């Protein structure tokens, strides 16, 4: 269709091309529409790529069996911006040292820092609008005009005057917004609150990293303790199997007793395997919280012997009231609320006029050639002149099709939503504090109760084992006593670690987990 249109245009213009006066106009009439149609004809769809259908890979790759292969080509990943920390494989790192490493190397803290810097630069962007803007401009181009001229009888016949040449116009332009009746002030308030919110998020993310590392540290210690208990259980099961075999050799036991001990030992090995897997998972979670590779050769210090928190805070209402003033998420929500209020002021200010001071100074330089078909020869002119202007411009919005009214409604809705979000966040924060408070109180009580439980289980195990050695207890009773002892040991270790985790959770929920020195 594009080619047929071009041919029709050429045919209509062919009769005019032979005439000197119409030759230029005919060429323009042919070339310009033709060029536009040719360019439009080249655009036949999107320039990107996609698969043929939802079940076909991008390149149509297939496996040897004919199945669709959705594998991706390897990508070269960029080097990390932060060098990994130097870890001494022979050193055991305590919780403060782990927190310090995490705060320096975790990519999330680095990203939050860059976002805070970007928000700070955003304030500078708005403040720059209070100052005059000066730009240097250069306009260069060519001009050609051709106009018919009537006859001046009897001096000149009718003809055509053609002027063509080139012009260069360098200038300096000034624009200074003098008054906007609060628009820039509102924009600066929005940028300032965004900067405050980004800084609060940066601080809050560090608190979150401290909590995640502390929680991972204590949970890893609990998992490691469970592994120690599981390994000791395997050793005890092996000892029990040896004892059963000796009793059978002396005629005091049976083959069934020996088989049962092998079953007990196999179950102990199975439980040890699961415990070791849980320990590896807990270690990986700790390293992930620190922002380190899961293969980092890091030794973690043991927490055995550390004193538990003695008591929980007494006045919970006062704790909640003080915590709501410190929590980063509450402060960030307050900054967002102030920013949305400033957004309402911004769109309201858009209804008011703007007053600008404008000015321009420059120089116009050019050469012009004049050709008059009525006069032989050509005339060449050169010009160079300084030009400038200064004034005050007032811009008043008149009709915008309801755009400003819609933007005002949108801004007020956002402000109302931010206010409701703050209320919901206050309720959520109070709930989290109460939950952490109850968890700490329960964990301390559970640890206190696990002491007598463990003591009773140890006493029962020693008694039953002695009875078994003297033929006064069955193997089933020995197995039950040993399982109860292992369970009591794990309960004790888990309650011990959970108390520290609960203390860290309460400190985090109340906004007090602000440094490695504040970690429990």
From TrEMBL:
What name goes with this protein?
Protein CyaE
Organism of provenance: Rhodobaculum claviforme
Q: Does the keyword Membrane apply?
A: yes
Q: Which is a Gene Ontology cellular component entry for this protein?
A: cell outer membrane
Q: Which UniProt keywords apply?
A: Cell outer membrane, Membrane, Transmembrane, Transmembrane beta strand, Transport
Taxonomy of the source species = Bacteria, Pseudomonadati, Pseudomonadota, Alphaproteobacteria, Rhodobacterales
**KW Transmembrane (keyword) present:** yes
Give the InterPro entries listed for this entry.
CyaE (IPR028351), OMP_efflux (IPR003423), TolC-like (IPR051906)
Which Gene Ontology MF annotations are present?
Answer: efflux transmembrane transporter activity; porin activity
Q: In which compartments does the protein localize?
A: Cell outer membrane
Q: Which family does it belong to?
A: Belongs to the outer membrane factor (OMF) (TC 1.B.17) family.
């Amino acid at each position: 269709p594009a080619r047929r249109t071009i041919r029709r245009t050429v045919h209509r213009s062919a009769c005019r091309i032979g005439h000197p006066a119409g030759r230029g106009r005919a060429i323009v009439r042919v070339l310009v529409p033709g060029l536009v149609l040719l360019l439009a004809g080249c655009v036949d769809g999107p320039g990107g790529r996609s698969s043929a259908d939802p079940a076909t890979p991008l390149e149509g790759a297939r496996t040897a069996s004919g199945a669709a292969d959705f594998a991706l080509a390897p990508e070269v990943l960029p080097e990390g911006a932060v060098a990994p920390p130097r870890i001494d494989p022979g050193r055991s790192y305590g919780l403060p040292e782990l927190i310090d490493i995490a705060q320096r190397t975790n990519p999330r803290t680095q990203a939050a820092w860059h976002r805070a810097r970007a928000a700070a630069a955003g304030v500078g962007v708005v403040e720059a609008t209070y100052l005059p803007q000066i730009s240097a401009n250069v306009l260069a181009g060519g001009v050609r005009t051709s106009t018919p001229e009537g006859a001046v009888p009897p001096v000149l016949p009718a003809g055509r005057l053609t002027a063509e040449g080139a012009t260069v116009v360098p200038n300096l332009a000034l624009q200074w917004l003098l008054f906007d009746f609060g628009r820039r002030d509102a924009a600066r308030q929005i940028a300032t609150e965004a900067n405050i919110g980004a800084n609060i998020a940066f601080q809050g993310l560090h608190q979150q990293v401290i909590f995640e590392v502390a929680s991972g540290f204590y949970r890893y210690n609990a998992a490691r303790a469970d592994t120690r208990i599981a390994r000791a259980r395997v050793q005890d099961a092996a000892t029990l199997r040896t004892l059963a075999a000796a009793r059978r050799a002396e005629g005091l036991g049976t083959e069934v007793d020996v088989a049962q001990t092998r079953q007990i030992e196999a179950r102990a090995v199975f439980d040890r395997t699961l415990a070791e897997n849980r320990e590896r998972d807990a270690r990986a979670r700790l390293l992930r919280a620190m922002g380190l590779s899961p293969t980092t050769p890091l030794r973690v210090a043991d927490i055995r012997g550390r004193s538990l928190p003695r008591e929980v805070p007494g006045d919970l209402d006062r704790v909640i009231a003080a915590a709501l003033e410190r929590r980063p998420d509450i402060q960030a929500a307050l900054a967002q609320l102030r920013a949305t209020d400033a957004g309402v002021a911004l769109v309201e200010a858009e209804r008011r006029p703007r007053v600008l001071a404008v000015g321009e100074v420059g120089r116009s330089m050019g050469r012009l050639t004049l050709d008059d078909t009525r006069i032989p020869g050509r005339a060449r002119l050169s010009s160079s002149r300084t030009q400038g202007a200064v004034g005050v411009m007032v811009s008043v919005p008149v009709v915008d099709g309801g755009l400003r009214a819609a933007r005002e409604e949108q801004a007020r809705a956002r402000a109302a939503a931010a206010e409701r979000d703050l209320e919901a966040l206050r309720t959520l924060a109070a709930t989290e504090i109460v939950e952490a408070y109850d968890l700490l109180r329960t964990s301390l009580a559970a640890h206190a109760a696990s002491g007598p439980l463990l003591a009773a289980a140890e006493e029962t195990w020693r008694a039953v084992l002695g009875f078994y050695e003297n033929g006064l207890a069955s193997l089933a009773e020995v197995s039950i006593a040993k399982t109860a002892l292992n369970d009591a040991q794990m309960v004790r270790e888990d309650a011990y670690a959970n108390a520290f985790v609960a203390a860290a959770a309460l400190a985090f929920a109340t906004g007090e987990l602000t440094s490695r020195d504040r970690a429990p």
